[in-house]
Specification:
Elements: H1 18-27, H2 32-57, H3 59-85, H4 94-119, H5 124-141, H6 143-158, E1 166-169, E2 172-179, E3 183-187, E4 193-197, H7 198-202, E5 206-208, E6 214-223, H8 229-242, E7 253-259, E8 264-273, H9 277-295
Antiparallel strand pairs: 1-2, 1-5, 2-3, 3-4, 6-8, 7-8
Helix pairs in contact: 3-4, 5-6, 8-9
Length: 311
């Protein structure tokens, strides 16, 4: 390959582009490698000039935007933690604190991102248009999530239950441990956690066993037909009244509710504080069995009498 050892002439006065200088150089026999090297240097110089111009004009805005972003997210995190655990918010219902903290966290981060866009010089009309378009797309794609948020507001407004209540909803029973922006968490007696969407739980029938300070526990016992009815009722009332979890008012009640094939069925109604309900349920049956044994009251078991007639 022939290499021309000729100096590259400077662009003539009045030349309008680097391409013309390259063309003039080639026409004079200049080496192509030298032209490429010169062009690369010019590109690097142009990029460096653009970078310096950006740093002097937008660099300060970029730095401020980054500071606002990180400091803003930190403040939102601290504020959310303050809402959840501060002594100043102890008087608020735990469910209200949790829901409000989630709302502040999401809303605060969105506001910070909009502020950063404004600092960087993005036109707010464009930002609003983008947010509107994104909101519409998200709204169509996440209709269930938006319904959950609306359901959360319904729960906060009408308070059918709160954190710590024992409820039955959607066929599941347990203690409410958290009411979030999208979901409500229920902890069952066997220590399982059930996550129910707010839209579901706000649109269904909810049984709240903790709404009233006193609850009634109702159960049945059986005794043989040969036992004295008044004696059986008296033993049931005494046992129920002496239970540590029962309360004096309303007073317990015992009565004959039905007759089965081999026994008389007695119903016992005992009142207790809502926090003592499980203790009463677990202890009463055993105490009644001991009382029946002490008083000689027979608890029959299913039996059948067969008569055989001889021909």
């Amino acid at each position: 390959m022939t290499v021309f050892d000729i100096d590259v002439p400077a662009a003539e006065e009045g030349s309008t582009s680097v391409a013309e200088a390259i063309y003039n150089g080639i026409s004079r026999g200049v080496d192509t490698a030298e032209l490429k090297d010169g062009l690369s240097r010019e590109k690097l110089s142009a990029f460096w000039d653009s970078f310096i111009e950006f740093c002097t004009t937008k660099g300060v805005d970029l730095l401020i935007a980054l500071v606002v972003l990180f400091v803003g997210f930190y403040i939102v995190k601290r504020l959310t933690k303050h809402i959840r655990f501060s002594k100043r918010t102890e008087h608020l219902d735990p469910s209200v604190r949790t829901f409000f903290a989630s709302f502040v966290s999401i809303g605060g981060k969105i506001l910070i991102v909009i502020t950063v866009c404004a600092i960087m010089g993005v036109p707010m009309s464009s930002v609003v248009a983008i947010i509107g378009s994104i909101g519409l797309a998200i709204g169509l794609a996440l209709q269930g999530a938006l319904a959950n948020i609306a359901g959360g507001f319904v729960i906060m407004a009408f308070k059918p239950f709160k954190v710590g209540d024992y409820i039955t909803a959607n066929g599941d029973s347990g203690t409410v441990t958290d009411i979030g922006l999208f979901y409500t968490k229920i902890q069952t007696l066997n220590n399982s956690v059930i996550i129910v969407p707010n839209s579901t739980i706000s649109n269904q029938t909810v049984k709240n066993d903790s709404a009233m300070p006193v609850r009634r526990y109702e159960t049945t016992f059986s005794a043989a037909y040969g036992c004295d009815v008044d004696k059986v009722c008296a033993v049931l009332l005494k046992t129920a009244s002496e239970n540590a979890a029962s309360v004096d008012a309303p007073a317990p009640n015992a009565f004959v509710s039905s007759h089965s094939d081999s026994a008389v069925i007695y119903t016992v109604q005992v009142w207790c504080r809502k926090e003592d309900y499980l203790a009463l349920k677990e202890s009463l049956a055993g105490e009644v069995k001991k009382a029946f044994d002490a008083e000689g009251i027979e608890i029959p078991f299913p039996q059948r009498v067969v008569h055989i007639d001889k021909p």
